[in-house]
Amino acid sequence: MSPLPTATLSLSLLLLLLFSSSTTTTNAHNITRILAKFPQFSTFNRYLTATHLASQINRRQTITVLALDNTAMSSLLSRHFSLYTLKNVLSLHVLVDYFGSKKLHRISKGTTLTSTMFQATGAAEGTSGYVNITNLKGGKVAFGAEDNDGKLDATYVKSVKEIPYNISIIQISHPLDSAEAEAPTAAPTDLNLTEIMFKQGCRAFADLLKATDADETFNQNLEAGLTVFCPTDQVVKDFLPKYKNLTAAKKKSLLLYHGLPVYMNMQMLKTNTGIMNTLATDGADKFDFTVDKNDEVVMLDTSVVTAKIMGIVKDEEPLIVYKINKVLLPKEMFKPVESANAPDSAEAPADSEPADDQTLDDNNGVQGLRSKRLVMAVLSSCIGMLLM
Prior knowledge:
Layout: H1 6-22, H2 31-36, H3 42-50, H4 53-59, E1 63-67, H5 70-77, H6 83-91, E2 94-95, H7 101-104, E3 111-115, H8 117-120, E4 130-135, E5 141-145, E6 154-163, E7 167-172, H9 179-182, H10 193-199, H11 203-212, H12 214-220, E8 226-231, H13 233-243, H14 248-256, E9 259-260, H15 266-271, E10 274-277, E11 288-294, E12 297-301, E13 306-316, E14 319-324, H16 360-387
Parallel strand pairs: 1-7, 8-14
Antiparallel strand pairs: 1-2, 3-4, 4-5, 5-6, 6-7, 8-9, 10-11, 11-12, 12-13, 13-14
Helix pairs in contact: 1-16, 10-11, 11-14
Signal peptide: 1-28
Region (Disordered): 339-365
Function: May be a cell surface adhesion protein.
């Protein structure tokens, strides 16, 4: 067999690189999932979620978390801070720069000041939201809040998880003291979901929530995090004839289907596309839909209809409310569309059970496998033609 021409080798290499890149996926870090593998940080992990710091950490591309084990967290919780003050204290333990174990031990001139998420909130005066990192004798690394009179409260214990240069989680021995972060913090202004909707073109949907008491379920999820997809007034008005034919239980399920029990801003939706559980999800009653993205447009596919997000009504963590251009119809209550060209008139009570559920990871895996198969087919075909 004669050697392959240079052009053939170049094209083959290009296709191999294309295949290699297609098999690589970029996944944002998830602090909750990472820490869930380490029971000694369970309390710290729980309060990152309760204070909504977890979602803020996940949105950062470069971050270092100074993790406290359960013993250190017990010491901190014994001070009985309010949840809002505790959020400030914990945000002081999140550095907005990457410090892996090697970098910590190789700090230029042996000491540095670095900004934290507490500084980024704007609540910290001056540089009180900065943390001092100093190399001590014997290879020790110490940490202290900048507004703590130069006192270094904690030392480096070990590296828990590092994904260079994305996220670094390192354990420190004690909580960092800061008068500024520990100052009493008032609760944010109470959020009234239906009142927000009344003022922003979602009055009709809000009226339905109140009429079915579904608003109570939405409000119960506000503190932990809530995402609402609100069909605009005209969309709801056009759907009312079908809505009135539903039983009371189905009406409530339909409305709950428009909420997620977690705060998901636009960037989070774009980077976490896949199957989402809703407020209507309950055991065997899946009531989920798929979040997809086309360029910068985010779509919600229920298998019956595909709705587009048209804008944001309110975004004040832990609540975000989106406007959508269709009522979301769950496949548990309406007949799924069999093809992309099927008319909306196919919306009718479902006669069969919905398709089996898939997790977000499974869904992405199927898409990745199809992509790999496509690239492999192209690769084989091109090399085959070149060898002829």
